[in-house]
Design a protein that fits this description.
Elements: H1 6-18, E1 25-26, E2 31-32, H2 33-36, H3 49-66, H4 71-76, H5 83-99
Antiparallel strand pairs: 1-2
Length: 105
């Protein structure tokens, strides 16, 4: 779901919370409130690009670490802990990545 403004998104988060809805994604990196909402002071913090990037990077590093040498599984677990779903997600990410232009270093 996309919103026209941050204020509109904050109002929607408040409505979901008031209704007892806890399983939804927040912000540009779609961080799930149910699983990771406790990692921020305010849920609206996840609407901030930098806060969302910081938490997403932490979560991705954690899922890769917990997956041992299986990088595909680790990347996929950013989205789902069900192995088949995780691997499918990681493959989609890889398909997107190979279409991006090369970056000079």
């Amino acid at each position: 779901m996309m919103f026209d403004s941050q204020e509109e998104a904050v109002r929607q988060i408040a409505k979901w919370e008031q209704a007892g809805i806890r399983n939804y994604d927040i912000g540009p990196l779609q961080i799930n409130r149910h699983w990771h909402g406790h990692r921020v002071e305010e849920l609206s913090d996840l609407l901030d690009v930098q806060a969302s990037l910081d938490l997403a990077a932490y979560l991705l590093a954690e899922t890769i670490q917990l997956s041992g040498d299986d990088r595909e599984l680790g990347i996929g677990r950013y989205r789902s802990w069900k192995e088949a779903d995780a691997r499918a997600y990681a493959r989609r990410i890889q398909d997107i990545r190979i279409q991006l232009p090369e970056q000079s270093q």
